[in-house]
Specification:
Number of helices: 8
Bound molecules: thymidine-5'-phosphate
Helix content: 55-70%
Distance between the termini: 10 Å
Structural class: alpha/beta
Order of helices and strands: EHEHHEHHEHHEH
Number of strands: 5
Length: 217
């Protein structure tokens, strides 16, 4: 089977991490070699950067934040994603470069040209074959994110951003989907976990079948 790089994006609380895990287990049952990873935090260095970014005491300067996400991505692409693709694997990444365009570009207000340059430097031009954008209204996502926090998940720094920030992030993601419809597919994340998973399979399986996934694995 040919390799593929699939990324999962959306605002906080959109349910993409659950969907990444569900897709990975379905593909593994079909005998596909799948690597699941995430940004930030897909490598040992990335885990340290994730901790610094999301659980830092006090303010993280927005430029420092932009560069730390880029550092995490540079390490991730070079140490994990490219080698896995070179070994013929299917890589599923919970967030990638679109997150920087949405969060640091639209959310924090950095110029699109600067964000594009930094993203290009970190990725070395590696683009996903497919991106699933899990879309739902900000209020519904905030409700999910806060129930996760109530259920014991550590409170992230970004969980504290106001709704306007998350609205800008959501709009930016939708704009990317409009600009790159062949790569970015919008999935209704407001549906149940099962319904959303069914939508994911409808989008992903045709791509993987083109890359050699047999109808029965
Ligand atoms: P998550 O693992 O729950 O998706 O959390 C990662 C957080 O980091 C989320 O709030 C989005 C944020 N983020 C950025 O702001 N820029 C980035 O480039 C990436 C990858 C994540």
């Amino acid at each position: 089977m040919l390799p593929a790089f699939i990324t999962f994006e959306g605002i906080d609380g959109c349910g993409k991490s659950t969907q990444t895990r569900l897709l990975a287990s379905v593909l593994r049952l079909r005998g596909v070699e799948v690597v699941t990873t995430r940004e930030p935090g897909g490598t040992p260095l990335g885990q340290k950067l994730r901790h610094a970014l999301l659980e830092a005491e006090g303010q993280v300067d927005p430029l420092a934040e932009l560069l730390l996400y880029a550092a995490d991505r540079a390490q991730h692409v070079r140490a994990l994603v490219r080698p896995a693709l070179a070994a013929g694997q299917i890589v599923l990444s919970d967030r990638y470069a679109d997150a920087t365009v949405a969060y640091q570009g639209a959310g924090r207000g950095f110029e699109p040209e600067l964000v594009a340059q930094i993203v290009g430097l970190a990725t070395g031009g590696l683009k996903p074959d497919l991106t699933l954008l899990f879309d739902l209204p900000v209020a519904a996502a905030r409700e999910r994110a806060s129930s996760r926090t109530r259920n014991g998940r550590v409170h992230d720094r970004l969980d504290g951003e106001d709704p306007a920030f998350h609205t800008r992030v959501r709009e930016a993601y939708l704009q990317i989907a409009r600009e790159e419809p062949a790569r970015v597919r919008v999935v209704d994340a407001g549906a149940s976990v099962e319904e959303t998973h069914a939508q994911v399979l409808t989008v992903v399986l045709p791509l993987l079948e083109k890359r050699g996934l047999g109808a029965r694995g």
